[in-house]
Amino acid sequence: MRPSTAGRWSLAALVVVIALIVAIWPRDRSDPPPATGPGPAAPSTAPVDRRPQDGAQALAPLRETAALDPCPQPGGSTPAPAGPLVGLVFECVSDGSSVDLAAALAGRPAVVNLWAWWCAPCAEELPVLQDYAARVGEEVTVVTVHTDPNESNALGRLADYDVHLPGVQDGSGRVQAAVGAPAVLPVTVLLRADGSVAAVLPIPFRSADEVASVVEEHLGVAA
To answer: How far, in Å, CA of 176 to CA of 82, rounded?
Structure first.
């Protein structure tokens, strides 16, 4: 017997209802998202040297407490900067001014120490570097480079350590990349007076004598 017209319409309505149920039934969260056509990629977050909340007003009382030495400045008679740090400009941790690091270090051997506020070996090494800086005087420039975006914590740590060395804020790790330093901390970079790299030393120093020894070996300056 052939189904009646009413029966055929009932069957068709049932099929439509089932299709609607399947369409709206919740899917497993592991299902892949529907494919989309080509389009612009979402913009990636660019590395930053310091956190947005570490503005001048927030850092002012921390800077006063830390009482860091001013960052080195280019001299009038120094040669044009050279080496891997050319063109890299940073914020001076002591006062927020801009520092062209290669220009500031040009004309004198330099000890550049890469550190971060959370680094335990750095906490032991920074006072050692301050002792060495006091010993060597103006023969060698000693400067720190803070390699984490949290500048507030950097200033707090330096105050705790009673370390007043001049330093720059490099939360994006540009110095580390420029000199080819390994991704460890602390790292000490020895620069010749012409800005070229004499040594990259990924080791913590435990005495001013140790620092003086490697500086004399690689830069020829005794202290």
So the answer is: 17
Reply yes or no on whether the pLDDT at 28 is more than 90.
Answer: no
Residue 97 Cα to chain centre, angstroms: 18
The structure tokens 């080791």 sit at 203
Q: What is the pLDDT of residue 77?
A: 74
Give the CA distances from residue 135 to residues 5, 6, 183, in Å, rounded to whole numbers and listed in that order. 105, 104, 29
Nearest alpha-carbon partner for 63 in 148, 152, 127: 152
CATH numbers and ranges of domains, the chain: 56-73+82-219 (3.40.30.10)
- Residues in CB range of 206: below 8 A, 6 or more apart: 124, 125, 128
* Strand 89-92, strand 110-115: pairing: unpaired
**Lowest mean pLDDT segment, chosen from 39-53, 142-156, 166-180:** 39-53
Q: How much is the pLDDT for 21?
A: 39
Phi, psi of 199 (to 5 degrees): -165, 150
Q: What is the CA radius of gyration of the chain?
A: 30
Q: What is the DSSP letter of 77?
A: T
Cβ–Cβ < 8 Å for 87, 102: yes
What is the distance between the alpha carbons of residues 109 and 191, in angstroms, rounded to a whole number? Answer: 6
- Closest-CA residue to 188 (of 149, 154, 144, 218): 144
pTM score over 0.70:
yes
Separation CA 173–CA 157 (nearest Å): 19
Contacts of 138 (CB under 8 A, 6+ apart): 108
